[in-house]
Amino acid sequence: MAKLLFFGRLGDLAGGIERSISLSEPHSVSALIGVLEAGDQLLGSALVDPRIRYALNGAIVDRETLVEDDDELAFLPPVSGG
Amino acid sequence: MLRRVTIAAAPFDPEAEIAAFRKALDDSGAIVTFTGQVRPSNGGGSVSTLSLQHYPGMTERGIEAMLDQVAERWPLEAVLVIHRVGDMGPHDPIVLVATASAHRRAAFEAADFLMDYLKSRALFWKSETSASGKLWIEPRDEDYADAARWDASPGGR
What we know:
The complex is a heterodimer of chains A (82) and B (157). Chain A has helices spanning 9-14, 29-39, 41-47; strands spanning 2-6, 18-21, 27-28, 53-56, 59-61, 66-67, 72-76. With 82 residues, chain A is an alpha+beta fold. In chain A, strands 2-1-7-4-5 form a five-stranded mixed β-sheet. A two-stranded antiparallel sheet of chain A has the order 3-6. The radius of gyration of chain A is 12 Å and the shape is globular. Chain B contains four helices and eight strands. In chain B, the strands form two sheets. In chain B, strands 1-4-6-2 form a four-stranded mixed β-sheet, sandwiched between helices. Chain B has a four-stranded antiparallel β-sheet with strand order 5-3-7-8, with no helix packed on it. In chain B, β7 (124-130) and β8 form a beta hairpin. With 157 residues, chain B is of the alpha+beta class. At the A-B interface, α1 of A face α3, β7 and β8 of B.
């Protein structure tokens, strides 16, 4: 199972911060968003907002990067700390 | 450079942390500390809860990488970063940055740099809950501009 993490307002849209998805073959980040979009269009469109960054196993990646079944993919909306 | 980064899930006492930080110093002549706390109101409505989320592991690594830059740019003896996550109420401390150096300029600049990073680039997500509901906060244009000041002068001091 691949682990998906939705931070900030994306967690509200996804109905929780964490979700698991079974990937029988590697999916690009784009393809994976496509799968999520098929189940929830609102979430899907939020995930392709140009300000969203993607982190695969803790490193920033682009949308072409492949995600495998035991990976952790995090969706990072604009940050705000302090 | 002595360094400590703490992501705190429970309230912390800035005064006690600053005292401990100062006690551990050897030959610094200048100490700068910044404490950020929850504003009792934001614009019109009153804020009942402020909540901060982070990405365990990645958030800490990002701050550590920032401290590597700080160590290269400024001659500091020590730096401390404490950042809250979880739910906070009005006046609760959110963030503490402390820097120590031989003379004041390096300590001031490094603390300023770190706060700009923490406000607009570190991996934290902040929401406010008030009578009118829950609102996710994004940095103001001013926060991005503050952080960009440091990109324009890569040499630092």
